[in-house]
Amino acid sequence: MEKKVYLYSTCLGSALMGRTIMNTVWLLKQAGFEVIYKKNQTCCGQPSYNSGYFQESKKVALYNADLFDKNYPVLVPSGSCAGMMMHDYLELFDENDKDFQKIKNFSNRVFELGEFLDKYLKIDDLGNPIKVTWHGNCHALRVAKSVSFSKSLIKKLKNVELITLPYEEECCGFGGTFSVKEPEVSNAMVLEKIKHIKETECKYIIIGDGGCMMNIDGALKRNKIDIKVIHLYDFLAKRMKGEVI
Q: Where is the Cysteine-rich domain (predicted)?
């Protein structure tokens, strides 16, 4: 296997989570990979796809397939975007479409980052003993099917105790445009999620998706609850570097 990979940083990663993306690069280098970052990468197309703009979403899919054109794995630090690129792109193109094979070949090269790191990254935990809980986003669970790899990475940290979150598989209420279209329902869902987080008595919740992170972190802060939200790949990097969480 050639030791080169593409990193797809996602919209939230590029705009709001630069440190997380840098930690992602560090983790991949620790695993022995050369990271190729395309500066002209753009959205995966999920917002338009979920809103029914299928022709516009097809253009985005083709743009990404052409941009990440070499036969390297495309690694995505988000189950939501990974699920879109791995699965939903194929729903946009009929098998008789002239571009179907191109999209299929591209989608077959896309991985949620956790799956890749679980296979290739040697983890040394240099942090102090700590208890954490985990929230897996809906697309990671049901579309990208990457949650098991993410939790496996956490369990490899010898000084970390992973406490199961009650009703772990329930949505946090973000859902992309859902939180905008149905704010009352979304708020009720995130408050229910927070209730379950508090039941674990953990001071840290690990999340592998930027949208869920913003939603849960915002609700915790609005309600003045002292629980820290941290991205999975920030958490892994800090534990391996021996940094304070």
A: 7-85, 132-217
Note the pLDDT of residue 180: 75
Q: Give the residues across from 6 on adjacent strands.
A: 36, 74
Q: Residue ranges of the chain with pLDDT lower than 70?
A: 1-2
Give the pLDDT of residue 1.
Answer: 54
Per residue in 191-241, pLDDT tens? Answer: 999 999 999 999 999 999 999 999 999 999 999 999 999 999 999 999 999
Residue 156: both structure tokens together: 């490899």
**Residue 61 falls in which region: left (phi positive, over 0), alpha (psi -120 to 50) or beta:** alpha
Q: How far apart are CA 85 and CA 11, in angstroms?
A: 14
DSSP-assigned letter for residue 79: H
pLDDT of 188 reads: 95
Contact in structure between 230 and 217 (CB atoms under 8 Å)? no
**DSSP letter string over the chain?**
--SEEEE---HHHHHH-HHHHHHHHHHHHHTT-EEE--TT----SHHHHHTT-HHHHHHHHHHHHHHT-SSS-EEES-HHHHHIIIIIHHHHS-TTSTTHHHHHHHHTTEEEHHHHHHHH------SPPEEEEEE--HHHHHTS--HHHHHHHHHT-TTEEEEPPTTTTS--S-TTTHHHHSHHHHHHHHHHHHHHHHHTT-SEEEES-HHHHHHHHHHHHHTT---EEEEHHHHHHHHHHT---
The whole model's pTM is what?
0.93
